[in-house]
Amino acid sequence: MDKDFLKRLHGKMMKQGIRMNYYPACSRPDLVLGISPHSDSSSITLLVQDDEIAGLQIRHKGGWVPVKPVPNAIVVNIGDVIERKRYGQNLTFNGVCQSIEHRAATNVAAARMSIATFVMPDDEVELSPVETMVDDYNRPIMYKSIKYGDYLRYTLSKKMDGKANTELLKVGNESD
Ligand SMILES: O=C(O)CCC(=O)C(=O)O
Ligand SMILES: [Fe+2]
User: Which Gene3D superfamilies does the UniProt record give (predicted)?
Assistant: First the structure.
């Protein structure tokens, strides 16, 4: 893979979306989530979170691990686009390059804000594994091809539900 691969993957017009989240203080954080479990449908996400108040949690070994804020740091998350590209290439990357499932918890004591910016490919970019890296025996294609614009619209039409979006588009899953 050459060094411009990731840039080229974004096609003619790389896009950036932004979501600003405000989570009011909540008396029952055990019952109320700030944002439901999901993975981002971007290629990468840059997240600025409050320096003091934790809320972001990532899925790990069936549990939820809080991401402790590091002052002045930006959290970089891998999104679904990278997962889909890497899966077909080399199965040893399966664990490393998954778009991470995450959620935000609420907090009794204080409100929290976060700002997520999503780097996204052009709508016309076809998401499919890189051909030279696919091998029917050892590195089979794991995802169906889909145009990014269609994938994005599909994910936006669904409620956030963990890794349901990437799961559904796996080769062999129900909509084949
Ligand atoms: O508030 C957070 O830390 C997470 C926000 C998030 O995951 C999102 O906006 O996609
Ligand atoms: Fe997210």
Answer: B-lactam Antibiotic, Isopenicillin N Synthase, Chain (2.60.120.330)
